[in-house]
Backbone:
């Protein structure tokens, strides 16, 4: 089993799809990494030699931001928006959709369970 960037990759999958299990690596990035390292897309994760796994690990470590570092960067970016008091920061702070979606009927994922407000009679 290959362990890259702190993630155990699934053994039976092709390496191009196995790398997408790492946070911050999608299919396009995975293919760019494999092209740079010179490994076939069709190779399975369990077929990788230790040298190939090490080259992939080193390439990712040197050239891409993944896992904990990327999560930390995203969290800091959101925190800086909130500290600035920008519109997007306020939406994050209030737990509302940030990218212009309507909130009259939808947005339950961001707003949470419905709280009925009405007159008490």
Residues:
């Amino acid at each position: 089993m290959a362990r890259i960037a702190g993630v155990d990759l699934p053994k039976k999958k092709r390496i191009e799809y196995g790398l997408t299990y790492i946070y911050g690596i999608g299919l396009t990035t995975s293919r760019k990494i494999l092209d740079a390292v010179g490994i076939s897309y069709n190779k399975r994760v369990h077929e990788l030699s230790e040298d190939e796994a090490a080259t992939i690990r080193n390439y990712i470590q040197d050239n891409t931001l993944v896992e904990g570092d990327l999560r930390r960067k995203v969290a800091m970016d959101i925190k800086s928006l909130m500290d600035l008091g920008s519109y997007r920061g306020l939406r994050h702070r209030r737990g509302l959709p940030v990218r212009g979606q309507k909130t009259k009927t939808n947005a339950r994922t961001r707003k949470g369970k419905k709280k009925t407000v009405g007159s008490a009679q």
